[in-house]
Design a protein that fits this description.
Layout: E1 5-6, E2 11-12, E3 17-18, E4 23-24, E5 29-30, E6 35-36, E7 41-42, E8 47-48, E9 53-54, E10 59-60, E11 65-66, E12 70-72, E13 77-78, E14 83-84, E15 103-105, E16 110-111, E17 116-117, E18 122-123, E19 128-129, E20 134-135, E21 143-146, E22 151-156, E23 162-163, E24 169-171, E25 177-182, E26 187-193, H1 202-208, H2 210-223, H3 230-243, H4 254-264, H5 281-285
Parallel strand pairs: 1-4, 2-5, 3-6, 4-7, 5-8, 6-9, 7-10, 8-11, 9-12, 10-13, 12-15, 13-16, 14-17, 15-18, 16-19, 17-20, 19-21
Antiparallel strand pairs: 21-22, 22-23, 24-25, 25-26
């Protein structure tokens, strides 16, 4: 059985590649030669043509056709009824299949509802195309584009908040990322967190596997088997197989796992243990 979901009303042709955790909803069609990454979501009435490349965690809303020549990198959002083209001067009576112009939508970019992306353009990382806009030329990273034809009217943070820049720099009020403008209006680069830098960005880790985690949690909640249930056995078997060991034993925490491992080695006070400083405290603490 595939490790992705396809609604019974949709059709994925033989020769198409679909990644783990991806969901393809009602009345959609994925053609031979298309490649779709992991944890993507294709809404109702989405068509993905041959030789299209779609990255991981891409969200495509209802009524979108992704034509041959289009590439969507990771974390791209396509709003309802947004439009891609692959020929700039189409005629019904003239075949131009050999003239498809490549369109590239880079990581994290968002395209609003009913927006049009004219063939041959590139949308930069985390660019934001407003609803109904018509993009006729390349878009720089982080740009906010509105109108027909689309023009840059501001800048957007990676988190989706509009930036308010002063003296060619600014900080996102929502997430704290700091930015500065370079090369006039042609580029905007994230400098890093302006506030305290977290030791570990668990939110970023979670968002990459959010749907999978929530589904697993709800399965446990519905079973009401919170301790030593079937998911624990599955985890132990998977860890054993990955490690090439006979058994896997799940513990309450990583610290407990380290401590048990040390105890099985018969270590005593005064014995030397060599570890690494590039780790969490528990590695040495255990």
């Amino acid at each position: 059985m595939p490790d992705y979901f396809v609604h019974e009303s949709s059709y994925v042709e033989e020769g198409a590649r679909v990644g783990r955790g991806t969901k393809i909803w009602h009345f959609s069609h994925v053609m031979t030669g298309a490649e779709i990454g992991e944890n993507c979501s294709l809404g109702q009435n989405v068509v993905v043509m041959s030789n299209v490349r779609i990255g991981n965690n891409v969200k495509i809303q209802n009524n979108v056709s992704v034509y041959e020549g289009v590439t969507l990198e990771d974390d791209v959002f396509c709003g309802p009824s947004c439009v891609f083209t692959n020929v700039t001067t189409p005629r019904a009576h003239v075949s131009r299949k050999g003239e498809y112009a490549p369109t590239l939508v880079r990581r994290g970019a968002s395209i609003g509802a009913n927006a049009t992306i004219v063939a041959g353009t590139t949308l930069g990382e985390f660019a934001f195309i407003g609803a109904g806009a018509v993009v006729t030329s390349d878009v720089v990273p982080y740009a906010l584009m509105l109108g027909v034809p689309a023009r840059r009217v501001g800048w957007m943070c990676q988190c989706g908040e509009r930036l308010h820049l002063g003296d060619h720099r600014g900080t996102c009020e929502r997430c704290g990322w700091a930015y500065r403008e370079q090369q006039g209006v042609y580029a905007l680069y994230a400098l890093g967190l302006s506030m305290a830098i977290p030791i570990l960005d668990l939110r970023a880790q979670f968002m990459a596997i959010r749907d999978e985690v929530l589904d697993a949690v709800m399965t446990v909640v519905e079973s009401q088997h919170f301790i030593m249930g079937e998911p624990v056995r599955q985890l132990e078997d998977a860890v054993a197989q990955m490690s090439g060991a006979r058994y896997g034993v799940a513990c309450a925490s990583g610290t407990d796992a380290l401590l048990l491992s040390l105890k099985t080695l018969g270590l005593a006070p005064g014995d030397e243990v060599i570890t690494t400083p590039f780790t969490f405290f528990a590695t040495a603490g255990a």
